[in-house]
Specification:
The complex is a heterodimer of chains A (349) and B (796).
Chain A: H1 2-21, H2 24-48, E1 53-59, H3 65-77, E2 86-92, H4 97-109, E3 114-117, H5 120-130, E4 137-142, E5 159-163, H6 170-180, E6 186-191, H7 198-212, E7 215-220, H8 224-231, E8 241-243, H9 248-251, H10 255-265, E9 269-271, H11 274-279, E10 283-287, H12 289-304, E11 320-325, H13 326-331, H14 338-343, E12 346-348
Parallel strand pairs in A: 1-2, 1-3, 3-4, 4-5, 6-7, 6-8, 8-9, 9-10, 11-12
Antiparallel strand pairs in A: 10-11
Helix pairs in contact in A: 3-12, 4-5, 6-7
Chain B: H1 2-5, H2 15-84, H3 92-104, E1 108-115, E2 120-124, H4 142-148, E3 153-159, E4 165-176, E5 179-189, H5 191-199, E6 207-211, E7 217-220, H6 223-227, H7 236-244, E8 253-256, E9 262-270, E10 275-282, H8 283-286, H9 288-334, H10 349-393, H11 398-413, E11 417-424, E12 429-436, E13 448-450, H12 454-462, E14 466-468, H13 475-480, H14 485-489, E15 493-500, E16 505-513, H15 521-594, H16 603-633, E17 642-644, H17 646-660, E18 666-672, E19 679-681, H18 683-699, E20 704-713, E21 716-723, H19 730-733, H20 745-748, H21 757-767, E22 771-776, E23 782-789
Parallel strand pairs in B: 18-20
Antiparallel strand pairs in B: 1-2, 1-5, 3-4, 4-5, 6-7, 6-10, 8-9, 9-10, 11-12, 11-16, 12-13, 14-15, 15-16, 17-19, 20-21, 21-23, 22-23
Helix pairs in contact in B: 2-3, 2-9, 9-10, 10-11, 10-15, 11-15, 15-16, 17-18, 18-21
Amino acid sequence: MLNRLVDGVGAWRHRFGQYLCMTPALRVRALAWPLCAVFLLTLPECLYAERVFNIASLNVADPYIVAFQGFKARMTELGYRDSQTVRYQYYNARSDEKLLRSFAQKMVQEKVDLIVTTSTVATLASAKAAEGSGIPVVFLSSGNPQALVNSFAGSGRNLAGISSGSVELTGKRFELLRTLFPKAKRVAMPLDPKGVNYKPIVSETAASAERLGFKIWEIGVANTEEIERASSFITRKSADAVFIAPDFRVTGEGAEFLIRQSLKEKLPLITSLLPNVRQGCLATYAADLFALGQQGAGLADKIFRGAKPGDLPVELPKKFALAFNTATAKAIDLKIPKDLLLLADKIFE
Amino acid sequence: MDSLSGLSLTSHRGRIRWRLMGWGLGLLALALVSNTISGFIYTRQQLIHGKAELHTEVATTTARSIAELVHWNLQQLETLSSNMATHTLGAKEQETLARLLIKHNPSIAEITLLDDQGEQRFKLSPMDLFSAAQKANQKASLAFIKAIAGENYIGPVLTSERAVPYLTLAVPLRNSPVQVAGAVVARVEVRILWEMIGAISFGRGGYAYVVSDAGVLIAHKDAALVLKQTTMRNSAKLRRSFAQQGADPEPAEIGTGITGEQVLSTYAPLPDLGWVVVVEEPTVLALSELSRLQEFAGLLLALGLLVGAGIITIVSRKLTRPLRELQKDVGRIAAGELSHRATVATRDEVEDLANDFNKMAESLQASYENLEAKIRQRTQTVTTLYELSRAVNQSLELQIIIESVMAKMVEFFGFERVQVFLLNEQSEEFCLQAVHEPGNAKLLVPKSFKAGEGVVGRVGQSGEPLIFEDVRQDPRYAALSSSKVAKTTGIRFLAVFPIKTPERTYGTIVFDSLDARVLREGELRLLNAIFEHIGVAVEKARLFERIKEQGHRLAQLNEELQAANRAKSGFIAAVSHDLRTPLNIMIGNADLGKSEFFGALDADYKQAFSKISHHGRMVLKMVNDMLTLSRFEAKKMSLDVAPVALGELIEQAKSHVEYANRDKKLSVQWEVDGNLPELVTDPIKLEEILQNLIGNAFKFTPAGGITVRVRNREARVEFSVADTGIGIAPENVDKIFDEFEQVNKSRTGNHSGAGLGLAIVKKYLDLMQGDIAVESAPGQGSKFTFSLPHSVDLHS
């Protein structure tokens, strides 16, 4: 046994001696196979290392955070662990369009893996910034998807998402107003004439108002200050009701002023955004932003698994919610009919 | 031995091992590959069978779920309809019930209540607001017709403008079990069907989709395909499924899938809806286990071969190690180490082989030693013969040859004394010619033997050798010996050989020794060969002595002859000199007489003077020629070298020709190169040569012409004289330059001379380092060409 060991050591010493006598080229060749073996043995570690996705969320106002929360919650359910397999960045431009564009450019510069937006205006800014970068954009809620895509069957570019149907639901909201206030005629509607949803909103409201016998009082506002100022003009003398159209300036930072004024003037305030009801609006019929966020997570997952965003059809909300704020109703001395309450999905007190 | 050492005993090293490796690994690989292939086929069948079960399960489960989904919606509508039936048609309560259903069932996108006339009582939607103006009669719609007839209706799947798939369901609104008051029609979105289909994932990359009876894709995980209205009408499998409306008889069949790739596909029909659920799994992924199996089998194969190679290596090493040792031993033997023996102890065939090799080596060693001894002996013989031949051929002097031979014989054979007796032909006795005794003891022996007397005389007479290995023991010696010298000198060994050629015996050679000895056969053969050489050498020496004697005699005679020749030349010179003076006087007076110097003469006198002058000149020329020749023979001829202007010399020759051709009977042409150099030679002799050749040309050309050419050739000048004369026969061409030779005298007629001209020309040219050649044919003329160097070399 000892002799064999000594022989073995001698053989290896001989081989090492031979190796030392080799030319550099032969030495490299002699080491090539062991190195390949080591590389192959370590390769699985490299291959199996999990990828971390960087997702940036661009928002235009606080109320939209609900959608992003829904998105994150569903992503977790789908197996994307926060800080482990996915990292989130949240940007809120707070109705500042310039800031919105700068955030969008920043996200693209940082080469995030996905941009998630929660409004048509934020989506437009992101899509423009991400153009040519290959970064997909998923919009969780767009009241006016026609401004983003040519067909619901697919955007044909790095864009996919969910239509909140908010503009299209204008008729249903006016129907709700008519049910709550059968005598209401004049409806005040603050709106940014330069907003991306302006034209479809005007068109849809005009058609619905005509059908249900309302007279729309359109108040042009360009920023939050103007909304604050304009809200003071909305009184029981000037209007029978107030309608917050799906315009981010009004549903976002400006909603607060309108809610305050409607409560002061005891005017029914119908909004386009579900979180506004929690804030104090009387009622709405709209998509659930949290559910939209969850739905959007499904799209993100498909994209991460290799689906082309342009091939994904623009989805519609799976469910719309009829929401009432009973405290507001009480504040403005309004009694919500029982059959409506029966149909309500959310009631804030 | 060199040829043995040159054997390439290691050229096939490792062959056995490689053969074992080749065959072993080949068979192992064959077994492993066969096993792998059969395993692969079996596994593939099992895999496809398993896939078929899985596919069937997935397809039927999916089909059942879809059917349940549609029927659940239909059931909800039926419940709504039942609830509505308790209220008046178009009542607010009915609307509220419909709204509640919409609220709780998000897939319902629209509910319409129709009366028995198809008039719309209300239409509700979660998104759209309908006005009274939008109300329309749907009496003609298939949904209404079916529902009013009391049947449930399930419409085809369509896609809305918002890219949402939907189907229309309709149920009758019954006032009573037999009376239908209207119909509840609902537009149900089947996006959930997409989600359900999209969520189906099984096996490796397996997916499902739903196709309508029109072959249009209804649901697929890739919504884009549905929205593109992808049709599957061309799928044979689908056509078969619609035709059979039963379970798939060939589940997991390999074919082309919806995306064009190879898939395993199975279908499950939805008979109520007329749809088919198809599940597909890409073949590449579905049978990926087979690929892994292949890889694994390959790995096993490689591993098996590696292990097999290791085992074979070990076994072959065990087998070939003694063979290699044996090979090394054989190599050492082959390299010349004949005393080496193989030491293999394996107790098997290899050991037997080693023993055989050892025996062979022993035989080889013995043979080699024997061969070496023979070679040594032969070498000694050859060396001895060579040395003796050299000694014999070194000289022609008999005494020297004999002494050399004796010294070599003593040296080679170790005899103590050698004596040579040569035959004296006059006395017919064999007289002692030489004795060689290296030792100090000078033995007294007889100086001569008569032929037939004693041992020496007997051998000399008979020509046969006599060998006495021990004279004391050999009775022949006592009988033959006349001197009995052995008794007085103590000689024991005596051998007497004749010195002879095949023709005669010249003498004998006697070897003796104080010790008895035996001459081996090889020594005897060598001695015989030596004595043949010696016999020839003695004959040659004798001949040489005779030739030497004759040479002396010939030299003596030659000297006498030369003296006589010199006397003859002196005589000719003296006679010639003495003849020239009277001849010149005779020719001069004849010329004077012919030119009427002594007075007018008639024609006969003139002719007589002419003949005297002509023949006198001929005789004078002959005398001059003889004088010239005698000067040559007396070796008194020398060159008078001077620069020669060839132009002048040729002009003189031309005047000579003009004179010779004064009667213009021949045409004469001169062809002389313009760049002739100045020659350094004997001008008189050159002029004489030219005149001689030109004179001969005139002499032997009765009619025609003569051409004289002078050309410059490298370091020589070439002269040629050609005529159209009588020519020379080929057999005479070589003789014309001999003295007193004039060929074909019958033809030369009155031009006959002494035949010394060309002989003198030849001797002149030899002296002047020139050469001459002749081309001639009888009747066609002759051409004499001679050349001279630009400058004669006086030192040669």
